[in-house]
Write the structure tokens for this entry.
Amino acid sequence: MLRGSGIRRALLVLVLIPVLTSCWCGQVVRRDVPVPPASASPEEVVRAYIDALLGKDAETVRAVMVPETDFDNEFNNSINPFRNWISANDITIGESYTSDLCPAGEKCRRMNVTMELCEVNDGSYPDGDFAQSFGVRYVKDRWLVTGFGSG
């Protein structure tokens, strides 16, 4: 009995190691991500955007992006995260700061995001450490993401 129990424990540990130490790559699991309220901070909007990318929630991605976004490119480009990302651990979103990459008269912010990334498809970003600056713009009384790789 002890021997069978030991084998079960060893198998459980082998299954949990990838989950506890890094990404567990596998199949995409679509999940709905709530659209943040209009009062959400830039950091909260970027977090919702990232969560929606990981969850393949196209409706929320559209809702948190600036209206002039090329959604065909955002969703179908072979190197964009909507297509490739399925899992990320240790997501850290830094405090936003004023951006000078802003159309005249607009209010924009940027923030640095780091995470441990896992991909489904071949893309330009390998699994592992990932760092990117994300931008948001204040549009019609709310912060909206300016697009992936916009900075």
Remarks:
- Residues 7-22 have pLDDT under 50 and may be disordered.
- The longest helix spans residues 2-21.
- The first strand starts at residue 85 and ends at 93.
- The CA atoms of residues 70 and 147 lie 9 Å apart.
